Amino acid sequence: MSLDRANVLLERVDGVIHFGIPSVVEGAQAAGVEVTTVDFQPPAGGDLERIALLEVVREADLAAAIAAANREALGRFLASEPHLVGVGVAGEVIPGMADDLFLHAGPPVTWERASGPLRGAVIGGLLLEGRAGSAAEAEDLAARGGVRLEPCHAHHAVGPMAGLVTPSMPVWILEDRGPRSGERFFCTLNEGLGKVLRYGAFGPEVLERLRFMAEILGPALAEALAEHGPIDLKHLMAQALHMGDEGHNRNRAGTSLLLRELAPALVRVERSRDQVSRVLAFIHANDHFFLNLSMPMAKCMLAAAEGVPLASMLTVMARNGTDFGIQLAAMPGRWFTGPAQAVRGLYFPGFGEADANPDIGDSAIMETAGLGGFAMAAAPAIVQFVGGSVADAEATTREMGRITCGSNPAWTIPNLDFLAAPAGIDLLAVEEKNLLPAINTGIAHRQPGVGQVGAGLVTPPWECFHSALAAFVRHCDKESP
Amino acid sequence: MSLDRANVLLERVDGVIHFGIPSVVEGAQAAGVEVTTVDFQPPAGGDLERIALLEVVREADLAAAIAAANREALGRFLASEPHLVGVGVAGEVIPGMADDLFLHAGPPVTWERASGPLRGAVIGGLLLEGRAGSAAEAEDLAARGGVRLEPCHAHHAVGPMAGLVTPSMPVWILEDRGPRSGERFFCTLNEGLGKVLRYGAFGPEVLERLRFMAEILGPALAEALAEHGPIDLKHLMAQALHMGDEGHNRNRAGTSLLLRELAPALVRVERSRDQVSRVLAFIHANDHFFLNLSMPMAKCMLAAAEGVPLASMLTVMARNGTDFGIQLAAMPGRWFTGPAQAVRGLYFPGFGEADANPDIGDSAIMETAGLGGFAMAAAPAIVQFVGGSVADAEATTREMGRITCGSNPAWTIPNLDFLAAPAGIDLLAVEEKNLLPAINTGIAHRQPGVGQVGAGLVTPPWECFHSALAAFVRHCDKESP
User: Fold this and answer.
1) Mind telling me how many Å the CA of B249 is from chain A's nearest CA?
2) Is A153 found in the same domain as A290?
3) Per residue in A17-74, pLDDT tens?
4) Which chain A residues are within 8 Å of B277, Cβ to Cβ?
5) How far apart are CA A69 and CA A75, in angstroms?
6) Hey, of A243, A257, A289, which one would you mutate to test binding to chain B, going by the most B CBs within 10 A of its CB?
7) What are the distances in angstroms from CA A232 to CA A83, A179, B244?
8) Residue B257 and residue B167 in one domain
9) Domain tally for chain B?
10) What is the pTM for the complete model shown?
11) Is the CA virtual torsion A282, A285, A286, A290 positive or negative?
């Protein structure tokens, strides 16, 4: 408003309505002025550069075109029908996989910039593949460029934490049985907690477990799935949400439902009682076993939304332990990155913040698909673990609904009277409301070779959203009608 | 107050504070008088006879002795440690079981007074045991007194719906590993839903399933348990409450957790792949499989509270389809009964209220132990099924907390910020607050031979509580210090 108009208004008031920093209010109050505080958030946190960018995309015709594009992207996401169809060997089934190639979580990264847990996983992978005889030899080989590193996301795959996929590893095979595609997606099998490769550990017990997984677990599950037939994962996830899972830090229900679904078929495979019993005991002992299925399920659904021009919906959030990266439906394959953040969480006895690696893993694909932190209200049993109350969990889910394109009627949250879970994070809503996605996650030790040290909550860095916004505005300039 | 005093007060007011029936208020309002309504419930619903009985037990010394007795009874209940230790054959393991004896749910009942579903189950039991060649022959045998009927509860057993136990049936064996006892408790294995013996069906498919259960399921589970070792059922129940079960009408989590616990051991038993696979598939296909374990778990805990003089805590609520009966900790084995009530619920397609048998089964032992309707808030996913909202479920749990002796810290309800579930129904609180226990249940067809037709909510008849109150007052007169 003009200064004249402001002065006219001010003559008529005997108090102050203040939009701004609290210290101004404190000063006015100290001077005896009556102050009314208003819960107001300026768009884009008041950042003029971002406000200017948002003004471009809020122009009426373009805004309508973007809204239509997001509806299309969300519709494709919701129509995807990820089914578990088999288990194969990474080197044989993942497109573009090669003998000298290791896949990892998050955006591209070199050995030089790789975090401790990713380095630890690469060392373990080289030992597992027989390409090095010791950790020192493996480290040396990696430093000399003896192994190529590419993101899982570049190969229709995802991986939790370090997310390492080496050619000999067994991987789940998912197929989209929705209307648009028969595309396949991949993820390794979950190793369990503690000293495991995905948290950067590579000791003998880690490698021995990985060999059991390659020689017995993977093949037995492949045979059981051939006997059982495809499993509708979206349906299984819907049930798990009604049984206290949020799909990221709590997967007990999903793991239980998967085991009871597969057990009758697993028993029929031509393997010894001892092998089948070990397979069932391995799954039973690991409440996160289902995570490595729900992650490629989420990837499958989000990939269906890729390639819709003008869609500002996120299709990827992923971290390599050094960088956090996102991708947009409008610009598939293009990473926008920022520094991986510290995780606020609880630590295992004997560990603390100083031990923690920054945020790592492709598992933020769960939040990208509206699960994990976005479905926190479904999992009151974990809120105590991450230091919150049930009300906090419900507030988080409702808050995340403010930055999504819509919701997913296939996934409902009983505690919120069967509210459809938020779905499809909108870059523009994140920027405008100045509200970052909430992510549940595990915490890896910052040194190679140690493993998991805790679990907690994290948000992405603002940088990746800001650079995505700038690029999206240029994309609109090129693509808009 | 005296009439004089009332008149003095009335002179000073210009409105009416009314305790009583709404029509009086409506009359006053119609006459233009300002009316303040107060949410007030007179003790014992204003019933002078019950008020007089309650006044006896509220006398200071006696009230203190009763409170101490209930603390003792509740403490014994909480200290009980029911473990699943095996599977045996009813005729061999249940104390007092005999060739000509069938056990049934609820208080004692004769063939003449038996409801349709109980008659149907007895007919099926006689066919199963080879004591009759046709339903007509079985009915004739039963009518001539050819089979003795006794309550499960008289034999350390419980049974859902008709609750029929015949000598050849396999039964779970539970053992109390708590400080007070090594006593054993028993329950048949759950058959699944629809056309099943416990709902009064006795067709060829019902008998064929029961033969599979006796010949393969029971023995395989017995061998698996011998391999696995005892299972702590209270701990399993605690997990299931965190996964959306209330333990009576929803048992999906309990069933899943039991299956994953037993599967690795089941695979090791010396049986064909086909048999083990059928066992796992049978359990997987029946989300209520765990109910027949949680019921004897509840019975085990409540039995630990039996025999505490002056304890007004309920140890049994059970129905035979004709009568509803309760027992008190102070007077073990003594039934107080009233007519079984109609269940308010939802019906399977093609069935309605006219088809429904009154309330039947020992499964109200779940509510007696603080689960089922008492833990409704733990299972938001079933509230829609029984026609309510999440808020209704939470209100029911809090409401039931008003009539219990205390709560159970081992069983918490995530949605209510990990509130300890209500535990130990106090007869005196039920009477004083005029508030009946809320029970979740299935609905059986009233004719023998049909099976389940729906599920819903029910309350006990007042008669059993009123007669228990009168008897309890006499008991106090005899026992009090």
Assistant:
1) 14
2) yes
3) 555 555 555 665 666 666 666 566 788 888 999 999 999 999 999 999 999 999 999 9
4) 264-265, 267-268
5) 10
6) A243
7) 5, 15, 21
8) yes
9) 3
10) 0.91
11) positive
